[in-house]
Amino acid sequence: MKGIGIILAAGVLLGLGRPDSGTAFPAPFAQPAPAQGKEGNKKIEGAIRIEFPVKEYMFTTAEAAKGVKIEYRIVVDQDLLNLIPLPHGPSSATPPGPSGLYPLERIAGNGQSYALLDFGLGPPPKETVKAVKKGTYTHSFTWDGRNWGGPSDTGQPKGPAFPPGTYTLTVTLHGKVMTDAAGSKLPYEISRSVKLVLK
Prior knowledge:
By secondary structure, this protein is mainly beta. The protein contains 2 helices and 10 strands; from the N terminus they run H-E-E-H-E-E-E-E-E-E-E-E. It has helices at 41-44, 61-66, and strands spanning 48-51, 56-59, 68-76, 80-85, 104-109, 112-115, 130-132, 135-143, 165-178, 185-198.
């Protein structure tokens, strides 16, 4: 979308599920507060979770400037045949990840923000019901330590580098879930957060 900035505040998000006991992917350092109006979460509770491989990510600013690859997992514990995964706005051109879901990765804190939200104008997303299969899916993204909201359709330049400090990486999934044969739908949102430290 033309002229869109990166002034997009992190919303209050709902975390669902937790890693199994003994897993190498520990629970996040803090639980997000419940989101409002996410009635569909009850329909898929415990079926999808987001896991991070560490209790916190830690990089130097020099490492980040060269580009760091940040990996996490989306675990689907059972086949889900009634989901409508949706990209995050304001653009709808974001491609799905390997799970078929549309994760939004946001790094924020101390007045800094990175989240690829704006890919320019595009048609509204089609609310297509998809089968999301049981499995463990590794997702990743590369970050160069800078503020950015996405290229837009104007080649929006990246902002300044994040200074040293402690930030929060949040991964969010959202969409709708079909609740009956008549086509009723309810929104869902799943989110997890972990600490990210720049030294």
